[in-house]
Design a protein that fits this description.
Blueprint (H helix, E strand, L loop, with lengths): L1 H6 L4 H7 L2 H14 L9 H7 L10 H11 L12 H7 L4 H23 L8 H34 L3 E6 L2 E6 L8 E4 L8 E13 L1 H4 L5 E2 L17 E2 L4 E13 L5 H5 L12 H32 L4 H18 L4 H18 L2 E3 L4 H7 L2 E5 L10 E7 L2 E5 L10 E3 L9 H14 L4 E4 L6 E4 L2 H13 L8 E7 L7 E8 L6 E7 L1 H4 L3 E6 L2 E4 L2 H16 L3 E9 L26 H4 L3 E10 L6 H10 L3 E5 L4 H10 L10 E2 H6 L3 H10 L2 E3 L3 H13 L4 E5 L5 H6 L2 E5 L5 H6 L2 E3 L4 H41 L1 H4 L15 H12 L1 H7 L22 H23 L17 H26 L15 H19 L1 H7 L6 H34 L1
Parallel strand pairs: 9-22, 9-25, 18-21, 22-24, 23-24, 25-26, 26-27
Antiparallel strand pairs: 1-2, 1-3, 3-7, 4-5, 4-6, 4-7, 8-27, 10-11, 10-21, 11-12, 13-14, 15-16, 16-17, 17-20, 18-19, 20-21
The chain binds adenosine-5'-diphosphate (ADP) and magnesium ion.
Adenosine-5'-diphosphate binds next to helix 16, strand 16, strand 17 and strand 20.
Family: Belongs to the cation transport ATPase (P-type) (TC 3.A.3) family. Type IIA subfamily.
EC number: 3.6.3.8
InterPro entries: ATPase_P-typ_cation-transptr_C, ATPase_P-typ_cation-transptr_N, ATPase_P-typ_cyto_dom_N, ATPase_P-typ_P_site, ATPase_P-typ_TM_dom_sf, ATPase_P-typ_transduc_dom_A_sf, ATPase_P-type_domA, Cation_transp_ATPase_P-type
């Protein structure tokens, strides 16, 4: 393994080239700091000296600022951003656009030749100019959309930017990881990501997972001891490396290199600025675009052939007009902007989610969110408030309550019946609380404002400190000084410390606290009325009954115990392993030697009120076909009680424990259990992974919350890994797809609602865009194939009469594609998206019913447009309404203007109709002001194109009389009416299906 690392081909060279000159300079400056000194084989103090830092104080903030400027930000080089002009030009990168430009060039050449011959009809090559202008405007719109989406994405990544704890000016501060500089002192704790390379100078039970760097899957134990000789990366046990993660313990290290001057900087590939993360939805969009593109191109070719066969090409102008029409049709009708709009809509949605405390790291997680079918949630802090108060203390001689709420250490000890508490209970309570407050990593600090209190560390632990202070039990422990700790982990469910009695001859004592049912099994004695005696089976039963009783009342229980070691020397403890220097080796690894023969003192019952809003969120999720599952390390009865209080299970429902899970014989039995059980208690993080995998095997899309470092695998495996923003570790946040800024379960449900809404909106604009484009295609196709029938081509006339001009088609595309489609993407929810089952991820976005909508609307749109046209032409089905117009050409201009306008208006009515598959457009008709703004804008622009003389020439339009306008609006409105009628039938069908 180590060999492999050493033998990696030196990829340093190309990377250095890819770096900017400034980045190279910064790396050089960093290398000069240490020169040839290998920090792993030098004394930590010497390294500190070279780096000019006092390890106990850290750098000063001014010095850190100076170093940041000199050595550069602590980040890996990424590919330089694509310049703006390139991004703009990329908008034209489309084969259909190339084709259109080619056709336009041909028309321009034809115009020049005619002009030279002196018989050009037009003073300027209007078609060519208009087409190019429209293409430019289109590109600008596309560019703006893309920029907007990029902005949203980078705003998100700023929100999830990693942070690091360092020592500066003598205090531990949390800074942005990019601000770490050489010489900084990293303060490492379990769950942290190491954010630079550094030399350890202090460590306690420190273990670091270096798989990302060395491929070694087992975490490496780290110690500050200087190495005798240079070692391979995986064996440099006194060094920590950028990008690795702390799985256990604590440590401090002096940063020796940052950014590209780290080991990972040497081996990582260039991080490209744009990662490829095309989602199922994007893939489907690409697919649909492609299929439609082919279909539209075929139709365009058919149109071209039909024009040639039916009407015959007589002049070059005929050919050019037909060619331009066919190519423009293809450009207008192929929804090439789908993916861009999709990205913008997702990005806007994700921004909205972030405002509601749900930070989604990748755009496409939104799709998955909308499909979630089960949410696995932690209990403590997510479903509950994590505001812990010790309310009960149960000791061998009795049970008492503690008054006072919150963390203010003000309250009294009273009996359950309100009477004063006397010895022996009193004495036992004090011993219990003292043990709990000693075996404790929490801290209660007076807040900045008088009367406020800051909780440092785990609220469970701090609640015991508060209780100890209320009863003045803390006085008993001031004489103890901690010398070693065996930390709490969710697997062990207990913690112990070893403390020295400073008043005595310095004898050591073990103090332990943990889940009572667990801790009790390590006790063989009990403290009753000041005397220690062997614990009896009866004592055990009493204690376990008390645990059940408290748990049933939703109390979180915690037992306390102790054991005098009867020696002042750790090394004298029987069974203790010693290191080379004759001292106790890593105590945390010797839990077995310490945690046995304990003396039980009592237990506390801690109340942690459920979050009030969670009950509603659970109910909403349930309505939406999303099951809520609670997974906790807490006692099964506590878990079941809180779960039933929150509506996760029925009253009297039971929790399954980790032990019971382990006892299941096979996968089938496990899957059967997870399909039914919604509360898991006394589980370890490894169970989370098994549960999530089992749920996924059954076809669920599972969300899973986590905070601790051990939760990371489960969070990573879940379809939607959710990390806690406040209590979560860096490692978990990195594995997650979503971060809850407020740690609140309701936020997950809100995110699911939002995700479904975004998805619904995507369907809305797809329905709109596709039906509009299909309408355009059908209109042109019908206009060409039915030209004689409709009076478009007159008997006796020669040459081609196109139903719509190329420029008109492109204009429609410009007007209706961008603004209304985007407005629809931010539509307020019209339907109750939480009222139906989650969508399967494999379900097509554009399903059968949606294609039904699209084709139906497309046909209606073409019919009304062609009718409107025919009405203004002599011949055809309908009488000519433009009697005063002389000649077919003049009539054609007006008829085209009609068709042009009807088509635009039909799209606008279609926008209203497309907001729902089933629901009437009149429900919440005015709820989307963006859409109405877009509609208003389109109408105004259409008027401009029809009435401004210069534009009349450019777009081949003419002013319409008032009567004609009425016809336009009425005909276009048929689209809405027809859609309403269809929806009535669809709704009836839907009801029948629901009843069946
Ligand atoms: P959860 O986070 O789901 O509530 P934990 O793994 O934190 O579960 O806790 C499991 C059990 O371990 C608790 O019910 C409690 O009895 C015990 N416990 C929790 N925190 C501590 C702690 N800091 N020290 C000792 N025991 C603890
Ligand atoms: Mg916990």
């Amino acid at each position: 393994m180590e060999q492999e690392v050493e033998e990696r081909p030196a990829p340093v060279e190309p990377r250095v080239e890819a770096q900017s000159p400034q980045e190279q300079q910064e790396v050089q400056a960093q290398r000069k700091l240490l020169g040839d000194v290998d920090p792993s084989t030098s004394d930590a103090a010497a390294v500190a000296k070279l780096l000019n830092v006092d390890p106990s104080v850290g750098l000063s903030s001014e010095e850190a600022k100076r170093r940041l400027a000199k050595f550069g930000p602590n980040e890996l080089a990424s590919a330089p951003p694509v310049p703006k002009w390139k991004k703009f030009l990329a908008q034209f990168k489309d084969s259909l656009v190339y084709l259109l430009l080619a056709a336009t060039a041909i028309s321009l050449i034809a115009w020049i030749i005619e002009k030279a011959g002196g018989h050009a009809e037009e003073a300027l090559p209007f078609d060519a100019i208009v087409i190019v202008l429209i293409l430019i405007v289109n590109a600008i719109l596309g560019y703006i959309q893309e920029a907007k989406a990029e902005q949203a994405v980078s705003a998100l990544s700023e929100m999830t930017a990693p942070t690091t704890n360092v020592l500066r000016d003598g205090r531990v501060v949390r800074i942005a990881t990019t601000d770490v500089v050489p010489g900084d002192v990293l303060v490492l704790a379990e769950g942290d990501t190491v954010s630079a390379d550094g030399r350890l100078f202090a460590a306690a039970s420190l273990r670091i997972a270096e798989a990302s760097l060395t491929g070694e899957s087992v975490p490496v134990g780290k110690k500050p001891e200087t190495l005798e000789s240079a070692k391979a990366l995986g064996d440099r046990t006194n060094m920590v490396f950028n990008g690795t993660s702390v799985t256990q313990g604590t440590g401090r290290a002096i940063v020796t290199g940052t950014g590209m001057n780290t080991q990972v900087g040497k081996i990582a590939d260039l991080l490209s600025a744009t990662e490829d993360d095309s989602s199922p939805l994007q893939k489907e969009m690409d697919h649909v675009s492609k299929i439609l593109g082919i279909a539209v191109c075929i139709i365009a070719v058919v149109v071209l052939i039909a024009l040639a066969v039916m009407e015959g090409f007589h002049t070059t102008q005929d050919v050019i007009d037909s060619l331009l029409l066919a190519v423009s049709l293809a450009v207008a009708a192929v929804p090439e902007g789908l993916t861009a709009i999709l990205t913008v809509v997702l990005a806007l949605g994700v921004q909205r989610m972030a405002m509601h405390h749900a930070i989604v790291k990748k755009l496409h997680s939104v799709e998955t969110l909308g499909s979630a079918s089960v949410i696995c949630s932690d209990k403590t802090g997510t479903l509950t408030k994590n505001e812990m108060t010790v309310e009960r203390v149960v000791t061998p001689s009795g049970e008492v309550q503690l008054t006072g709420t919150g963390y203010a250490p003000e309250g009294n000890l009273i009996g359950l019946d309100g009477t004063a508490v006397v010895d022996p209970v009193r004495h036992e309570v004090l011993a219990t609380l003292a043990a709990g407050a000693l075996a404790n990593d929490g801290e209660l600090r007076a807040g900045d404002k008088p009367g406020t209190w800051d909780v440092i560390g785990d609220p469970t632990e701090v609640s015991i400190i508060v209780a100890a202070k209320k009863t003045h039990a803390d006085r008993a422990f001031q004489r103890f000084q901690r010398v070693a700790e065996i930390p709490f982990t969710s697997e062990r469910k207990r913690m112990s410390i070893i403390a020295k009695d400073t008043t005595d001859n310095g004898d050591l004592t073990v103090f332990a606290k943990g889940a009572p049912d667990v801790l009790l099994s390590f006790c063989n004695r009990i403290l009753v009325d000041g005397a220690v005696r062997p614990i009896t089976e009866g004592d055990r039963q009493d204690i376990l009954h008390a645990v059940d009783r408290l748990s049933n009342e939703a109390y979180r229980t915690l037992g306390e115990a102790y054991r005098p070691l009867e020696t002042p020397k750790l090394s004298a403890v029987p069974g203790m392993k010693l290191n080379a220097a004759g001292q106790a080796a890593d105590v945390a690894e010797q839990a077995d030697v310490i945690e046995h023969d304990l003396i039980w003192t009592g237990m506390v019952g801690i109340i942690d009120p459920p979050r009030v809003e969670v009950r509603d969120a659970v109910a909403e999720a349930h309505r939406a076909g999303v099951r809520t599952v609670m997974i906790t390390g807490d006692h099964p009865l506590t878990a079941a009680r809180i779960a039933s209080d929150l509506g996760i299970i029925d009253k009297g429902g039971k929790a399954l424990t980790g032990e019971q899970l382990d006892a299941l014989p096979d996968e089938a039995a496990f899957d059967k259990a997870t399909s039914q059980v919604s509360v898991y208690a006394r589980v370890a993080p490894e169970h989370k992974l098994k549960i999530v995998e089992s749920l996924q095997r059954q076809g669920n899309i599972a969300a899973m919350t986590g905070d601790g470092v051990n939760d990371a695998p489960a969070v990573k495996s879940a379809d939607i890994g959710v990390a806690m923003g406040i209590t979560g570790t860096e490692v978990t946040k990195e594995s997650a797809k979503m971060i809850l800024a407020d740690d609140n379960f309701s936020t997950i449900v809100a995110a699911i609602r939002e995700g479904r809404g975004i998805f619904e909106n995507i369907r809305k604009f797809l329905r709109y865009l596709l039906s509009s484009n299909v309408g355009e295609v059908f209109t042109v196709f019908g206009g060409v194939v039915l030209a004689g029938f409709l009076g478009i081509s007159q008997p006796g006339t020669q040459g081609v009469t196109v139903p719509l001009l190329a420029t008109q088609l492109l204009w429609i595309n410009l007007l209706t594609d961008a603004a209304p489609a985007l407005a629809m993407g931010v539509d307020p929810m019209t339907e109750d998206v939480m009222n139906r089952k989650p969508r399967k991820l494999t379900d097509r976005v554009i399903d059968g019913p949606m294609w039904g909508d699209v084709i139906y609307i497309g046909i209606i749109m073409a019919i009304v447009t062609l009718i409107g046209m025919d009405m203004h032409l002599s011949g055809g089905l309908f009488t000519d309404r433009s009697v005063d117009l002389q000649g077919h050409d003049a009539q054609m201009v007006e008829a085209r203007t009609m068709a042009f306008t009807i088509l635009v208006f039909a799209q606008l009515f279609n926008a209203l109709a497309s907001r729902s598959h089933l629901q009437s457009a009149f429900v919440g008709l005015f709820s989307n002001k963006w859409l109405w703004g877009a509609i208003g804008l389109s109408v105004v622009l259409q008027l401009v194109v029809i009435y401004v003389p210069a534009l009349q020439v450019a777009f081949g339009t003419t002013s319409l009389p008032a009567g004609a306008w009425l016809e336009c609006i009425l005909l276009a409105a048929v689209v809405l009416v027809a859609s309403e009628i269809r929806k009535i039938f669809l709704r009836i069908g839907d009801k029948r299906r629901q009843h069946a």
